[in-house]
Specification:
Length: about 150
């Protein structure tokens, strides 16, 4: 029997908290140059015991979203929190009437595949998303482009 996904509190990240997000991303080896950009919507994830577990972000481009800045605090990895965080970000994208979520990953393609994301060619990603620094700065050998179609409520 599979354990239930952890329940998380999802809090929009205050402007002053973005340096904490930047530090967590740098430590995880993820891009952090533009986390202060107001187009990047960021959230903090905590357990219901107020234990911080990670951060995640989205950028919205009409009916499309870019999932980014997803990081779980290292001692809490591999226990289902990342899946719960992605589910919360997908719910945010659906609430904003997005129909597809795109992402780039250098090392977690298998993780995102388990969550329903599929590999996609970069040229099929909307131009507005491809123009973002996260896509421009990472070469094709560096990262896998992925997409998940979602239904909004």
């Amino acid at each position: 029997m599979q354990a239930a996904a952890p329940r998380l509190q999802v809090q929009p990240l205050a402007v002053w908290e973005r340096e904490g997000l930047r530090a967590a991303l740098v430590k995880a080896g993820l891009p952090a140059d533009d986390v202060a950009d107001p187009r990047v919507l960021c959230w903090r994830f905590e357990t219901y015991n107020d234990v911080p577990v990670g951060f995640g972000g989205l950028e919205i481009f009409g009916a499309d979203a870019l999932l980014r800045s997803l990081v779980t605090i290292p001692p809490l990895r591999r226990i289902g929190l990342g899946s719960a965080m992605v589910a919360a970000l997908e719910a945010e994208a659906a609430a904003r009437k997005c129909r597809a979520i795109y992402l780039l990953t250098a090392s977690q393609a298998a993780f995102f595949s388990r969550l329903g994301y599929t590999r996609c060619e970069r040229k099929k990603i909307p131009a507005a998303i491809r123009a973002r620094a996260q896509f421009v700065s990472r070469g094709p050998a560096d990262a896998t482009a992925m997409v998940k179609r979602i239904l909004y409520l």
